[in-house]
């Protein structure tokens, strides 16, 4: 196998409405997602194994059969030695693990949206990338016209669990939220410390920060490179298209 290096871009959920709950407990959404140029890197060579180099804060990344890279390799019936450099914080609502899995799927030739969904909720979008409207439980991905946009992200140095946030949304009676993300009240209820980071970015930028997905990353449109909070510097990113070349 030729040595290959792949990009796995983060996804930013620009808006998210929870439109219902299925009988099996899965939540239906209507969201706009975009790929941005904050990327993990995957180096693929002959062999069978996974090495993770953590270059970002957040939840710890498993280096075992539960890592979504390993899950994706099993899904396509391939083996490889993968060195994964994590620059997308885990548990930040930026789809890093899903994008890593999607990079493997693209490398292997791709799979159906249903098969991608079996790996993780955001994998169907991440396999396509670019800008899209995402509905159903995440498996319906409809491309939207590309737009060049810039965002400033502020990610707390702790992870947020998506299942915990959805349970909080249920417990709160299914709130909607101004600002375009129905999960924001639930995330703040489950993780009250998130409010501090929202307020820091809002005050520094003069724009009300919005939550990315289930959190905990907050974002605003536009570039505010000088923003920082508790020694964590905000990151300015640009949206990227669906063409995701190897490095």
Walk me through the structure.
25% of the residues lie in helices and 32% in strands. With 247 residues, it is α+β, with helices and mostly antiparallel strands. Strands 1, 2, 3, 4, 5, 6, 7, 8, 9 and 12 form a ten-stranded mixed beta sheet that branches. A two-stranded antiparallel ribbon has the order 10-11. Helix 5 (162-171) crosses helix 6 (184-190). The chain has helices at 68-75, 96-107, 113-119, 123-128, 162-171, 184-190, 194-205; strands spanning 4-21, 27-45, 49-54, 81-86, 131-136, 140-143, 150-154, 210-211, 218-221, 228-229, 232-233, 235-240. The two termini are 16 Å apart.
Explain the layout of strands and helices.
Elements lengths: L3 E18 L5 E19 L3 E6 L13 H8 L5 E6 L9 H12 L5 H7 L3 H6 L2 E6 L3 E4 L6 E5 L7 H10 L12 H7 L3 H12 L4 E2 L6 E4 L6 E2 L2 E2 L1 E6 L7
Parallel strand pairs: 3-4
Antiparallel strand pairs: 1-2, 2-4, 2-5, 2-12, 5-6, 7-9, 7-12, 8-9, 10-11
Helix pairs in contact: 1-2, 5-6
Number of domains: 2
- Subunit arrangement of the protein: single chain
Structural class: alpha+beta
Largest sheet: 10 strands, mixed
Query: In CATH, what is the class of the largest domain?
Result: Alpha Beta
| H-E order | EEEHEHHHEEEHHHEEEEE
Q: Separation of termini?
A: 16 Å
Please, what is the average pLDDT?
93
**General form:** globular
The count of helical stretches stands at 7
CATH topology tier name of the largest domain? Ribosomal Protein S5, domain 2
> Percent range for helical residues?
25-40%
Number of strands: 12
In CATH terms, what is the architecture of the largest domain? Answer: 2-Layer Sandwich
Low-confidence stretches: none
C-alpha-based Rg, rounded: 17 Å
Strand content: 25-35%
């Amino acid at each position: 196998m030729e040595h290959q290096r792949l990009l796995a871009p983060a996804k930013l959920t620009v808006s998210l409405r929870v439109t219902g709950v299925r009988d099996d407990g899965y939540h239906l959404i209507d969201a706009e997602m975009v790929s941005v140029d904050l990327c993990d890197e995957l180096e693929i060579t002959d062999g069978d194994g996974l090495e993770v180099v953590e270059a970002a804060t957040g939840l710890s990344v498993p280096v075992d059969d539960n890592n979504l890279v390993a899950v994706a390799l099993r899904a396509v019936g391939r083996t490889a030695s993968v060195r994964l450099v994590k620059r997308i914080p885990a548990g930040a609502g930026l789809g890093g693990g899903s994008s890593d899995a999607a990079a493997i799927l693209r490398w292997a030739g791709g799979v159906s949206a249903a098969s991608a969904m079996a790996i993780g909720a955001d994998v169907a979008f991440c396999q396509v990338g670019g800008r899209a409207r995402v509905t159903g439980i995440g498996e319906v991905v409809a491309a939207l016209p590309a737009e060049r946009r810039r965002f400033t992200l502020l990610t707390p140095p702790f992870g947020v669990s998506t299942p915990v946030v959805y349970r909080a949304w249920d417990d709160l009676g299914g709130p909607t939220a101004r600002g375009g993300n129905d999960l924001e009240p639930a995330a703040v209820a489950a993780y009250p410390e998130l409010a501090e980071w929202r307020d820091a970015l809002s005050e520094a930028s003069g724009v009300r920060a919005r939550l990315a997905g289930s959190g905990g990353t907050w974002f605003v449109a536009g570039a505010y490179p000088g923003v920082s909070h508790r020694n964590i510097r905000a990151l300015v990113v640009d949206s990227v298209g669906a063409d995701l070349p190897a490095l």
